[in-house]
C-alpha cells in the first residue's frame, strides 16, 4: 500500500490510544498492529520507521519497538 | 389466514394468544384451560372446536363486526360474539345450537347476496374463507333477490355506480373490490401488524369500502408488505402469482435471504414451481410478518440473467467461454496454484459472502486456511459491521448483539442511531412501531429525517439531526449529561463493571469540553435538545439502543460503538429484557459470516489466529498447519494487488466493485490481479474483472443456515433443485478438491457438525436441534442447550464491563471551498444492497434509479430544481444522477442510495476508514453538487467497459 496511506492508518490508531488512560500506549498500539496487520504490512511499516518514519506520529514511532517483526518464511 | 396447507400447527385460532392465569371452561362439553384474557373463540379452538368466523384472525385483535361467530353461554342473555368475549372460570359455551346456527346462516346469506358466485373460476377457489364458512354454516339457499350489489358491472342496463374495477397497480397483488366483504381485516393488518395506516374504511353501512387514500395502491402510502393480502379472507387482495399459477399444494419452511431480520417464510409450491412466499407465523424473528423484499421480491432467482454454466477466459478483455465444471475447476486451480508458486503462498485469498449460508462461509474460510495455507479471508461485513465486532468485543467481551427482537416489546425508551429501520429492517421496524404506539418513547440520532421521526401514529420525542461524522461527539455529550447530572446507575456499575475504569472514564467525560453546549457548534445538535434526550434515556425506564451502518461506517466507527456500549452500561441497560445494545445487521448473514471466521485475524467463534490452542483445534480437525499471522483485509488485498503482491481472489456472492468504497481503486486492484474467480448468480460488476465465473445457487436451491441480527440460527431449506447444478457449498468443495483437498461433505449438516465440534458457542447446534426447536440463538451449548435470547444476564461475558474513553476526533474528510457539502449514503425499502437481486424484480416499480437528496436552500443557491440532472463530485471521483429537493436532509448535507450500478455512488466515496477495523467511511464524504447534462464520462466509459466485459461466446456445438 502507499506509504502515505499506511502512515495515516497507523496515526489513526495512535490517536485513539493516545486518548486512553495509562502509560502503555505504545505497547497497546503495537498490540493492535500485531493483531490486525498482516506480516507484509508490518514489514513495510517497520521498514518505513527504520527509514526515518516520515509522517509518523511520535507515538507510532515509539510503538514500532514493540511491533513483532514478521518471521521471513520461504513461501 | 389462508393456512390450509398444514392444518394443526397453523390453525387460525381467531384471536391472538394471551398470557395470564389459567382459566377453565367448558365448550360443547369439552373442558379446556386457557390463560386469562383469551377469547371464547380461541378457547374453543384449543379444545378442537372451530367457531365459524370471518372478521377474526389470530394475527389481529378481535373486531367483532361480522357476527358469524356468535355462541350461547349458559346464564348469559343473547348470543355474544365469541371473538370479543373473554373467557371466565366455569363458563359453559355452546357453539352449535339451533339458534346460533340460524343466525349464522342469516349472516352468510347477506354476505353472499352481495358476492359474485364465480367460485369455480375465482383465484381463491379452495383458499377462501367465505367459501369455507358458507360450507361450515350449511348455507343452502340465498333468499334475497337481486338488489343493489357491488360486484355487477351493470345493473338494470346502466353502469353500476357502486362497482369499482380491479386495481392491479401493485406489481405483486391485486385489489378487487367486487369481492370485498368489508371485514376490516386488511385495514387492521396495515395498522396493527405493519403500522403504515395506508388503508381505511370509507363510507358507512352498505356504502362502506376499503380505501387506500390515493388513486391506487401503487401511488398510496402502501409499502407492499403483504400483511393485508395475508389477512384477507377472500380473493379481494390476492397475490398475482396465485392468480397466474393457481393455489399451491405443498410448502417448505425457510428463511428470507435479504436482510438481517431473518424472517421465516413458508415457500408455497405447486410441484417445483414457487407460487408464493408467505411469512410463517411461528417464525421467532418475524412472528408472521414480512416486508416487500422477502414476501414478493424472489423473482430474481428465476431471472433470465442468471448464469447457469461455468465460464472462463484468459484475459478480462476476452469474451467469456462457457465450459464444463471440470474444465472451469481445473483452470481455476491451475491458475491459483501457479500464482502461489510464482508469487508466494500469501498472494491469493478469498472474500466470503454475508449472503451465503453459514456452512458455505465456513467452507470458504476453510479453503483459504486449509488449502491456500494463509489467512487471507475477509467478508463484506468488513464494510459494514466490523467496528461492532471490535467495539463490543472490547467493552462487553463479545461482539454479539445483546437482545432478541421480542425484547423490544419490553422497552420504554428506544434510541435509534444511524439506522433507518423502516427501510433497512422493515419487519423489525413494524415491531418497534407497535411498541411506540403503545407508549414507548423514541430518540432518533441521524443526520436525516428518517421515516420513524414522523409517520402515522409514531413520532420521535427527540430527533438529534447531527452533522455526519460527529457521532462520537454526540454520544459522548449524552454520557456527559448523564454523569454530570448524577443520572448514572452507580449501583449497577459497581456490581457489573470495572469500577476503576469507570472512575477514569467518568473523569474524562465530566470535562466541560464534552458538554452539549461545547459541542453544539460542531455537531449541529441544539444543546437543550440533547440534554433532554439524554435525560429521557437515563430516566425513562428500560432503555434500548438500536444502531446501524450510520454508526459503523465512519473513521471513528469503533469508537462510536464503544460510546454506545458506555451509554448502555452507564444507565444500567444491559442484561435483561427490553434493554441492550442491538446492532442492526445489513445483509441476511452478516452475523453468521462473522461468526464463521471470515475475518483474517480470527478463526470461527472470534478466536484470534495467534492462539496456539485454538489453532490446535482446527489443525487437528483439518489435518493441516494453520498460519498464526493475521491475513489481509479487503482494503489491504486491493492495496497489495495494486502493489503487485496479491494476485488471485475467490470472491463468493459479493460484488465488491459496487459495494466497496472508491470504485476506481477497487477496479485498479481487481485489474491488477491475474486470477479473479467470481461465484455469483449474475455477471455482477466485479465479474467484469474476473477470469473464472462459477454460477451460484439461490437461497431457494440449497440447504443450510443463516444467522440473523439477534444471533438466531435459522434453517434455509432447499425448495427446488439448483438451476446451476450445484449448491454453493458444493461449488466451493469442487474448487478445494481441484486444488488438492480431499473434502467429502455430502450434506451441509456435516459441515454444521464440524462447526459445532470446533466452536464452543455452536457446540449444541445440530440440524436435529434446529428441526426440533425451529431456531436457536447462539451461544448454544451444554450450559445453554436451548440457546441464549439475552446476553450478559449474570454479568458481562468478559467478566466486568469495561468503560472506554471515547475522544472525538474529526474525520480527515473535511468540507472546504471545493467540496462544501457532506454526502451520506443509505438504502431504501424496496431495494437491497447493490440491487443485483431486487433490480431483477418488480421492485423497480418503486425505485428505478438512485437520486440525490438535497436541501431546498442548497439546491436554490446552485440553481437546481427537483429532477434535474446533477453532477456529484468528491476528491475521489464524480458521477451524475437526478436531484430530489427535500428538507429531509439538513442544509449542508446531501444523501443518496447505492442500489444501481449506473449511478456508481461509490465512485465518490473515499478510501478513509475506521481506525481499528478499516471499515470504510461511507457515511461522510465532502462533495460538491452542480448542474449537469447527463451521465459523467466515467459512467459512460464504465458502461461501455461493462458491456464489453460481459460478452459471452456462443457455445461451440
Ligand atoms: S379487502 Fe379483504 S380483508 Fe379487506 S375488508 Fe375486503 S375482504 Fe376484508
Ligand atoms: S401491503 Fe402492507 S402497507 Fe400495503 S396496504 Fe397492505 S398492509 Fe398496508
Ligand atoms: S424484513 Fe428482512 S428478512 Fe424480513 S422479509 Fe424483509 S428483507 Fe426479508
Ligand atoms: S369473527 Fe367474531 S364477529 Fe366476526
TrEMBL record, chain A:
A Pfam family hit: FdsD
Lineage of origin: Bacteria, Pseudomonadati, Pseudomonadota, Alphaproteobacteria, Rhodobacterales
Stored InterPro entries: Formate_DH_dsu
Q: Which domain of life is it from?
A: Bacteria
Q: What protein am I looking at?
A: Formate dehydrogenase
From TrEMBL, chain B:
Q: Which CDD domains match?
A: fer2 (cd00207), MopB_CT_Fdh-Nap-like (cd00508), MopB_Formate-Dh-H (cd02753)
Q: Positions of the region Disordered? A: 1-20
Gene Ontology terms: biological process: formate metabolic process; respiratory electron transport chain
Would you indicate the residue range of the signal peptide? Answer: none
Specify whether Iron is a keyword of the entry.
yes
Superkingdom of source: Bacteria
User: What are the alphabetically sorted keywords of the record?
Assistant: 2Fe-2S, 4Fe-4S, Iron, Iron-sulfur, Metal-binding, Oxidoreductase, Repeat
Q: Name one GO cellular component term.
A: oxidoreductase complex
Occurrences of domain 4Fe-4S His(Cys)3-ligated-type (ranges): 99-138
4Fe-4S ferredoxin-type domain mapped to chain residues: 171-202, 213-242
Q: Where is the 4Fe-4S Mo/W bis-MGD-type domain?
A: 249-305
Would the keyword Metal-binding turn up in this protein's UniProt record? yes
A molecular function GO annotation: molybdopterin cofactor binding
**Which Pfam families would you find in this protein's record?**
Fer2_4, Fer4_7, Molybdop_Fe4S4, Molybdopterin, Molydop_binding, NADH-G_4Fe-4S_3
Q: Give residue ranges for domain 2Fe-2S ferredoxin-type.
A: 21-99
Similarity section: In the C-terminal section; belongs to the prokaryotic molybdopterin-containing oxidoreductase family.
| Alphabetical list of PANTHER family matching this protein | FORMATE DEHYDROGENASE H (PTHR43105:SF14), RESPIRATORY NITRATE REDUCTASE (PTHR43105)
What name does the UniProt record give this protein?
Answer: Formate dehydrogenase subunit alpha
Q: Which organism is it from?
A: Pseudooceanicola sediminis
Amino acid at each position: 500500500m502507499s506509504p502515505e496511506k499506511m502512515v495515516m492508518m497507523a496515526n489513526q490508531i495512535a490517536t485513539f490510544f493516545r486518548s486512553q488512560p495509562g502509560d502503555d500506549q505504545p505497547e497497546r498500539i503495537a498490540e493492535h498492529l500485531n493483531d490486525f496487520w498482516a506480516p507484509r504490512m508490518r514489514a513495510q511499516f517497520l521498514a518505513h520507521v527504520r527509514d526515518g518514519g516520515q509522517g509518523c506520529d511520535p507515538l507510532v514511532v515509539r510503538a514500532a519497538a514493540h511491533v513483532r517483526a514478521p518471521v521471513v518464511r520461504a513461501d | 389466514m389462508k393456512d390450509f396447507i398444514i392444518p394443526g400447527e397453523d390453525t387460525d385460532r381467531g384471536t391472538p394468544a394471551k398470557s395470564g392465569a389459567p382459566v377453565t371452561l367448558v365448550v360443547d362439553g369439552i373442558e379446556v384451560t386457557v390463560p386469562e384474557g383469551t377469547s371464547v373463540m380461541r378457547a374453543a379452538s384449543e379444545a378442537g372446536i372451530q367457531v365459524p368466523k370471518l372478521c377474526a384472525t389470530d394475527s389481529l385483535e378481535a373486531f367483532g363486526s361480522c357476527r358469524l361467530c356468535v355462541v350461547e353461554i349458559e346464564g348469559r342473555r343473547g348470543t355474544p360474539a365469541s371473538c370479543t368475549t373473554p373467557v371466565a372460570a366455569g363458563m359453559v359455551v355452546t357453539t352449535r345450537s339451533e339458534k346460533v346456527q340460524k343466525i349464522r346462516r342469516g349472516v352468510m346469506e347477506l354476505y353472499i347476496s352481495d358476492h359474485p358466485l364465480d367460485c369455480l373460476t375465482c383465484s381463491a377457489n379452495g383458499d377462501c374463507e367465505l367459501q369455507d364458512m358458507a360450507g361450515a354454516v350449511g348455507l343452502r339457499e340465498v333468499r334475497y333477490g337481486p338488489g343493489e350489489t357491488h360486484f355487477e358491472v351493470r345493473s338494470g342496463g346502466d353502469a353500476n355506480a357502486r362497482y369499482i374495477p380491479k386495481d392491479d397497480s401493485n406489481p405483486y397483488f391485486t385489489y378487487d373490490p367486487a369481492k370485498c366483504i368489508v371485514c376490516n381485516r386488511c385495514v387492521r393488518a396495515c395498522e396493527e401488524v405493519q403500522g403504515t395506516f395506508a388503508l381505511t374504511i370509507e363510507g358507512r353501512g352498505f356504502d362502506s369500502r376499503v380505501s387506500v387514500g390515493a388513486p391506487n395502491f401503487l401511488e398510496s402510502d402502501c409499502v407492499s408488505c403483504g400483511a393485508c393480502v395475508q389477512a384477507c379472507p377472500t380473493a379481494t387482495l390476492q397475490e398475482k402469482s396465485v392468480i397466474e399459477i393457481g393455489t399451491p399444494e405443498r410448502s417448505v419452511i425457510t428463511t428470507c435471504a435479504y436482510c438481517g431480520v431473518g424472517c421465516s417464510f413458508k415457500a408455497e409450491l405447486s410441484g417445483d414451481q414457487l407460487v408464493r412466499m408467505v411469512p410463517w407465523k411461528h417464525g421467532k424473528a418475524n412472528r408472521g410478518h414480512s416486508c416487500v423484499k422477502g414476501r414478493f421480491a424472489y423473482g430474481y432467482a428465476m431471472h433470465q440473467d442468471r448464469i447457469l454454466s461455468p465460464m472462463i477466459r484468459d484475459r478480462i478483455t476476452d469474451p467469456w467461454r462457457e465450459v464444463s465444471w471440470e474444465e472451469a475447476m481445473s483452470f481455476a486451480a491451475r491458475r491459483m496454484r501457479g500464482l502461489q508458486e510464482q508469487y508466494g503462498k500469501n498472494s491469493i485469498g478469498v472474500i466470503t459472502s454475508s449472503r451465503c449460508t453459514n456452512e458455505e462461509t465456513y467452507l470458504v474460510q476453510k479453503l483459504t486456511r486449509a488449502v491456500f495455507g494463509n489467512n487471507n479471508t475477509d467478508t463484506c461485513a468488513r464494510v459494514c459491521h466490523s467496528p461492532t465486532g471490535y467495539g463490543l468485543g472490547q467493552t462487553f467481551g463479545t461482539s454479539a448483539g445483546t437482545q432478541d427482537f421480542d425484547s423490544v416489546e419490553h422497552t420504554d425508551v428506544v434510541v435509534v442511531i444511524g439506522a433507518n429501520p423502516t427501510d433497512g429492517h422493515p419487519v423489525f421496524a413494524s415491531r418497534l412501531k407497535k411498541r411506540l404506539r403503545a407508549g414507548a418513547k423514541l430518540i432518533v440520532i441521524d443526520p436525516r429525517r428518517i421515516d420513524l421521526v414522523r409517520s402515522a401514529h409514531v413520532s420521535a420525542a427527540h430527533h438529534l439531526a447531527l452533522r455526519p461524522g460527529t457521532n462520537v461527539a454526540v454520544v459522548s455529550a449524552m454520557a456527559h449529561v448523564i454523569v454530570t447530572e448524577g443520572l448514572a446507575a452507580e449501583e449497577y456499575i459497581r456490581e457489573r463493571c470495572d469500577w476503576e475504569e469507570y472512575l477514569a472514564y467518568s473523569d474524562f467525560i465530566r470535562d466541560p469540553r464534552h458538554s452539549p453546549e461545547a459541542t453544539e457548534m460542531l455537531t449541529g445538535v441544539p444543546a437543550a435538545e440533547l440534554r433532554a434526550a439524554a435525560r429521557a434515556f437515563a430516566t425513562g425506564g428500560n432503555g434500548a439502543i438500536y444502531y446501524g451502518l450510520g454508526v459503523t461506517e465512519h473513521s471513528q466507527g469503533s469508537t462510536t460503538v464503544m460510546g454506545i456500549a458506555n451509554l448502555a452500561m452507564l444507565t444500567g441497560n444491559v442484561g435483561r429484557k427490553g434493554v441492550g445494545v442491538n446492532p442492526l445487521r445489513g445483509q441476511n448473514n452478516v452475523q453468521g459470516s462473522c461468526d464463521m471466521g471470515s475475518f483474517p485475524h480470527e478463526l470461527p467463534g472470534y478466536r484470534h489466529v495467534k492462539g496456539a490452542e485454538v489453532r490446535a483445534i482446527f489443525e487437528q480437525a483439518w489435518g493441516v498447519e494453520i498460519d498464526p499471522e493475521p491475513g489481509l483485509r479487503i482494503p489491504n488485498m486491493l492495496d497489495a494487488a495494486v502493489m503487485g503482491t496479491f494476485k488471485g481472489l475467490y470472491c463468493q456472492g459479493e460484488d465488491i466493485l459496487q459495494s466497496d468504497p472508491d470504485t476506481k481503486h477497487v477496479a485498479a486492484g481487481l485489474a491488477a490481479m491475474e486470477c479473479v474467480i467470481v461465484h455469483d448468480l449474475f455477471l455482477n460488476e466485479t465479474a467484469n474483472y474476473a477470469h473464472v465465473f462459477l454460477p451460484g445457487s439461490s437461497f431457494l436451491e440449497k440447504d443450510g443456515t443463516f444467522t440473523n441480527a439477534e444471533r438466531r440460527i435459522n434453517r434455509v431449506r432447499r425448495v427446488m433443485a439448483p438451476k446451476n447444478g450445484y449448491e454453493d457449498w458444493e461449488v466451493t468443495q469442487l474448487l478445494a478438491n481441484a486444488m488438492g483437498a480431499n473434502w467429502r461433505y455430502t450434506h451441509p449438516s456435516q459441515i454444521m457438525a464440524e462447526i459445532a465440534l470446533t466452536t464452543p458457542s455452536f457446540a449444541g447446534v445440530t440440524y436435529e436441534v434446529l428441526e426440533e426447536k425451529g431456531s436457536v440463538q447462539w451461544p448454544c451449548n451444554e450450559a445453554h442447550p436451548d440457546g441464549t435470547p439475552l446476553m450478559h444476564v449474570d454479568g458481562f461475558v468478559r467478566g466486568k464491563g469495561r468503560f472506554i474513553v471515547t475522544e472525538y476526533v474529526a474525520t480527515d474528510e473535511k468540507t472546504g471551498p471545493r467540496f462544501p457539502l457532506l454526502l451520506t449514503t443509505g438504502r431504501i425499502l424496496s431495494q437491497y444492497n447493490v440491487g443485483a437481486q431486487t433490480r431483477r424484480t418488480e421492485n423497480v416499480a418503486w425505485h428505478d434509479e438512485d437520486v440525490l437528496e438535497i436541501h431546498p436552500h442548497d439546491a436554490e443557491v446552485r440553481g437546481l430544481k427537483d429532477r434535474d440532472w446533477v453532477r456529484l463530485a468528491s476528491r475521489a471521483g464524480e458521477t451524475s444522477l437526478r436531484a430530489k429537493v427535500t428538507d429531509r436532509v439538513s442544509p449542508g448535507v446531501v444523501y443518496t442510495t447505492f442500489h444501481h450500478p449506473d449511478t456508481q455512488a461509490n465512485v465518490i466515496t473515499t478510501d478513509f476508514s475506521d481506525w481499528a477495523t478499516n471499515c470504510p467511511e461511507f457515511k461522510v464524504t465532502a462533495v460538491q453538487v452542480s448542474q449537469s447534462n447527463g451521465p459523467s464520462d466515467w459512467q459512460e466509459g464504465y458502461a461501455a467497459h461493462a458491456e464489453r466485459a460481459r460478452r459471452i461466446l456462443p457455445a461451440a456445438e
